[in-house]
Write a structure and sequence with these properties.
The structure holds two protein chains of two kinds. By secondary structure, chain A is an all-alpha fold. Chain A contains three helices and no strands. The chains are: A mainly alpha, B mainly alpha.
């Protein structure tokens, strides 16, 4: 499973599959300058930071921080 | 309890309300029953809003939204209580009591509008993509605008004419009608955010708030054609008011459960 798919799969139960995929793709392209399928483990910390503002809005900073920490820990 | 099951509560409540109201129809007990359940649904909505508030930290975008919804419901509950014995203040006119009642009504409307506006613009703050293109957004917004104007427009126009004729007591009713129209306009972003989040736990609060605004739309429509507790009449507007408040109650609980679930599993 690609990095993009792993991250999307961890966001989808909360934010829906559509949003999860679009968010990862948008952050990858706009903030990291790479296509979603080109994400590697080196991009994870910046990808997580790119996702943080959106997640903060929907689930609050504390829950977002926990979820992003989990993603950073589990995606390989 | 799973969120999916919670969402049945507003409908079950409406069914029970209709059953009891029909049973009491024509009797003296109908009015106290309707008034009593009005207090109950306000209290439930307040509980739901503050359950949602408790899921967030100070400074979180949605904490402000739910806080505004909760405070606005407290204000409208205060207005309802002041209209009951032993206060029994009038709901309209220019006396001091009527102005307090109307003022609470307007403040609660403005708070409700601000809270719904914060929820409705969450997608923009979060910079998420909506599942429809610009044409789709314009289309849904137009449908909401037409509905809003059809339902609340005539009342706004009537009160605007009264104010123009020098009846300042109608000013508060005009503000209330305009707030109604603006709230209904927010149906579009609420609905589209629900669509964007579909399949995820966080779609539930948005879906239920959207349902609540729709129920208020029906309330406005019912109140226009069948005034609440008309002599010998069925309290149809109260069915929709209960539905609207109970949707907010369950939306608040769903919001809290969604955030709690993230924390539990992360």
């Amino acid at each position: 499973m690609s990095i993009s798919e792993q991250v999307s799969a961890r966001l989808a139960p909360y934010l829906g599959e559509f949003n999860a995929q679009v968010w990862v793709k948008t952050v990858a392209e706009r903030k990291l300058g790479v296509p979603a399928e080109g994400l590697t483990l080196e991009h994870i910390s910046r990808l997580v930071e790119g996702l943080r503002p959106s997640l903060n809005t929907f689930m609050g900073r504390a829950a977002a921080a926990q979820l992003l920490k989990k993603i950073g820990r589990e995606v390989h | 309890m799973r969120i999916r099951r919670l969402t049945l509560f507003p409908l079950l409540y409406a069914v029970v309300f209709v059953g009891v109201a029909l049973w009491l129809s024509g009797g003296d007990a109908l009015r106290p029953f309707v008034r009593g359940q009005l207090i109950l649904v306000r209290l439930l909505a307040i509980a739901g809003c503050f359950a949602a508030v408790s899921a967030f930290e100070r400074g979180d975008h949605l904490r402000r939204a739910w806080l505004l919804l909760g405070v606005s419901t407290i204000l409208v509950l205060a207005r309802d209580l002041l209209r009951l014995p032993p206060f029994a203040l009038p709901g309209s006119g220019v006396s001091a009591g009527a102005l307090v009642v109307s003022g609470l009504g307007v403040l609660s409307n403005v708070g409700l509008l601000a809270g719904i506006w914060l929820l409705a613009r969450a997608w923009r703050v979060a910079a998420i993509s909506l599942p429809v293109g610009r044409g789709g957004v314009v289309g849904v917004t137009l449908v909401a605008a037409v509905l809003a104007l059809l339902v609340a427009g005539p009342s706004a126009l009537q009160h605007a004419r009264e104010v123009a004729a020098g009846d300042l007591s109608a000013l508060i009713l005009l503000v209330s009608a305009v707030v109604d129209i603006l709230s209904l306009l927010l149906l579009a972003p609420l609905f589209l955010t629900t669509l964007a989040l579909r399949g995820g736990l966080f779609a539930w609060p948005w879906g239920l708030v959207t349902a609540s605004v729709l129920a208020w739309l029906l309330y406005d429509g019912a109140a226009a054609v069948a005034p609440s507790l008309a002599p010998g009449g069925f309290p149809l507007p109260d069915v929709f008011r209960g539905l609207a408040e109970n949707c907010v109650f369950v939306a608040g609980l769903a919001q809290k459960r969604a955030v709690d679930q993230v924390r539990r599993t992360a």
